[in-house]
Predict the structure.
Amino acid sequence: MVRVEIADYDLFQVPPRWLFLRVETDTGLVGWGEPVVEGRARTVETAVEELFESYLLGRDPRAIEDHWQAMYRGGFYRGGPVLMSAIAGVDQALWDIKGKHLDVPVYELLGGPTRDRVRVYQWVGGDRPADVADRAREQVEAGFTALKMNATAEFRRIESPAAVDHVVERLGAVREAVGDEVDVAVDFHGRVAKSMAKQLAAALEVHDPMFVEEPVPPGHEDALPAIAAHTSTPIATGERLYSRWEFKEVLEDDAVDVVQPDLSHAGGISEVTRIAAMAEAYDVALAPHCPLGPVALAACVQVDAAVGNALIQEQSLGIHYNEGTDELAYLADRSVFEFDDGYVDLPEAPGLGVELDESVVRERAGEVDWHNPVWRHEDGSVAEW
């Protein structure tokens, strides 16, 4: 077999809060990845540089699994958002190169497609949800059949009955606006302490949410069985879990119905495919987290296409984080992410199925100073964002 080597790499911080990785081989093939922790792009950029300078340069990009193992295990200290996000972006780029080398989409290398198209959902309402009924109606008129909204803004450890009622009324208004044929997921965003999550999940049940997402802050996954016991609504979580080992514990508790690993945080295509297979063994669906850019979404769609338990895909068009820039801005061909009746067709181009407009990437690259806000309660103490 003719040897191919990783010859060069480059990193681009771009608006609104993304980091793109470009990897080039000595044969001229280029693969793209999206390694980032939102708000910590410079930190992840340094981690990616360390992986290339200490290990990846000069190696054959086609040995994806061997490189994944070396990046994960070779540094002795493992896991966490920074290392796993760095690995994720490298993994995406290597799969992109391998697909282009073999002239097939990545999903063909993962066993072939299990579906013809992937269902997507649209965000409504912003960080502090408001005007959600009108926005929901607009998105359904635009063709979406599934929506997601934040449940709350700041939420105290023990809240008033009125605060709970406001959340229920907000979802009720959306349900009335869009009817029962549209799925509406509710994201607790880790803002709700376990003392209120049981009550809030049970109260929302009257409006039949598709799922409640991240009902407790990370680190409190042991509370999920108690929350599940208080509601028949499916529970989703996982955007702040970074490896199969963390998902193993959640799955074994039998309290989660949908896992949501992020392909830019949880080790990339290789690791999320493994997480999906683990989840399937527990009769749990996959809905990858992706409020990110075009490379991350392309990687998600490749996995969604290949695994049997993919439920629905998050995407960031029109999301509240992307003021002034969206994922289409960096694409050479924007039609790859055209949504029809709430679905996106499987890409047919090789690799990840998207090509970035490199001139736009380079023109807009620079240090991007995006950080999530620090919220505070009325007494001045820090609130979950």
About this structure: The domain at 108-349 is CATH 3.20.20.120 (TIM Barrel).
